[in-house]
Amino acid sequence: MKLTSRVLNRTALQRQLLLERSALSPVEAIERLVAVQGQDVNPPYFGLWSRLTAFTHDDLTSLLYDRRVVRGSLLRGTQHLALADDYAWVRPLMQAPLTRARQAAWGRVTAGVDLEELVALTREHLTGRTLSRPELRDLLARRWPEVDPMALGWSAQALVAVVHPPPSGTWNRGGATPFTLAEEWLGRPLEAAPSAARIVSRYLAAFGPASVMDVQAWSGLTRLRPVIEAMPLRKYQDMEGRVLYDLPDAPLAPEDVPAPVRFLPYFDNLMVAYADRSRMMTAEQRKAVCVGAIVHPTFLVDGVVAGRWDLKDDVLVLKPFAALPDAVMAELAEEGARLLAFAGAAGGRVTWRPPAA
Q1: Could you tell me which residues are beta bridge partners of residue 308?
Q2: Residue 357 reports pLDDT greater than 70
Q3: Cβ(311)–Cβ(278) under 8 Å?
Q4: Euclidean distance between CA atoms 21 and 49, whole angstroms
Q5: What is the mean pLDDT of residues 200-214?
Q6: Which end of the chain is more exposed for a tag (fewer CB within 10 A), N or C?
């Protein structure tokens, strides 16, 4: 069975809670999404606000303080918020891509460092306490004074499972990132040998149908084809003939279901969930949204990316990629006013930057 781009789009939006705001609790929503990108502190709040009917800042902040949600390096080696129960098995799966990324970035600089000793020393420094990245970096530099301290700090973060306890990661709280051992914060050890099939199933529930390359692009894992082909999954094709996999009983959304405008924050996982992102944006739009390591905030019109947005000094600036009908602009302005209110800028204003000629 071949699936049109519009069916894939509507199905992705449905599974991402973006066709209509959901009454799920924040815990249920984060579990549904597998993990919420947390590279910066405020985007997870905006992402959940766009998906849930009655979400407040305190809803997520309290989960971080209660240790039910934790922040640390997960998918693609980047910062994510995940349920503590999920972190315990997702983080071990991510060790291979984290190790690979560390070697690519810092392998030459740390060529003379015994990595097993680095891991042991990092754990020794963190046992029973929390350190900032500069503090940990400086302690490690005492052992290897000839090595770039930044390389030591990032290597430690990649090779040792650490989380960043609050107030780090809470609304408007940037600054120094604290480190503490994940198993101490969670109060239990991480899983020793979790199955890759488990994360494939969770991904498909949140983003499917999708190809092997899609799953790998989202997760950072490699060599998943044998895993996926051994699973009892349903197979489709897209209009280009690519094989797509899905959970056997997962429903597809009708292609004619309406999709309201939605604002997605920096680094929203939906923007990087696929190797082929044509169900969400054109190739040209992708160049404007995914710029180097940055994934810019976007707004969706009729389910697809229609522009970027930025919020500064109580002003929400909308930057459409093309001219929009007056009715759509009015809908975006109304949703934008709600976004401003959520951000604590109820007296702010929505402005427009005309699309490039």
Answers
A1: 298, 319
A2: no
A3: no
A4: 9
A5: 98
A6: C
How many CB atoms within 10 Å of residue 271? 22
Beta bridge pairs of residue 37: 80
Unique residue bearing structure tokens 């891509």? 97
43 contact partners, CB below 8 Å, separation of at least 6: 37, 265, 266, 267, 268, 297
| DSSP reduced 3-state for 116 | helix
Contacts of 241 (CB under 8 A, 6+ apart): none
Name which of 17, 8, 32 is nearest 254 in CA terms: 8
Task: Please say whether the beta carbons of 88 and 176 come within 8 A.
Answer: no
Which structure tokens are listed for 225? 């084809």
3-state secondary structure (DSSP) of residue 187 = coil
Question: Is 275 within 8 Å of 216 (Cβ atoms)?
Answer: yes
In this structure, what token pair is assigned to residue 267?
Answer: 């680094």
Q: Report the pLDDT value the prediction gives residue 354, as an integer from 0 to 100.
A: 86
Phi then psi dihedrals of residue 299, to 5 deg: -120, 145
Which two tokens mark 171? 């609304």
Q: Which tokens hold the place of 333? A: 């302005």
Distance CA 46, CA 201 (A): 26
The residues spanned by each domain of the chain are 22-186, 281-352
DSSP code of 118?
Answer: H
pTM over 0.90: yes
* The token pair that represents 180 in the structure block: 């503490």
Please count the other Cβ atoms lying within 10 Å of the Cβ belonging to residue 328.
16
Average pLDDT over the chain, rounded to an integer: 96
pLDDT above 70 as % of the chain:
99
Partner residues linked to 319 by β-bridges: 308
- Is 46:175 a contact under the CB 8 Å cutoff? no
Name the residue among 305, 313, 298 with its Cα closest to residue 283: 305
Amino acid at 315: V
Distance separating alpha carbons of residues 19 and 25, to the nearest angstrom: 17
Token pair of 130 as six digits: 């929390």
Phi and psi at residue 315, in whole multiples of 5°? -120, 120
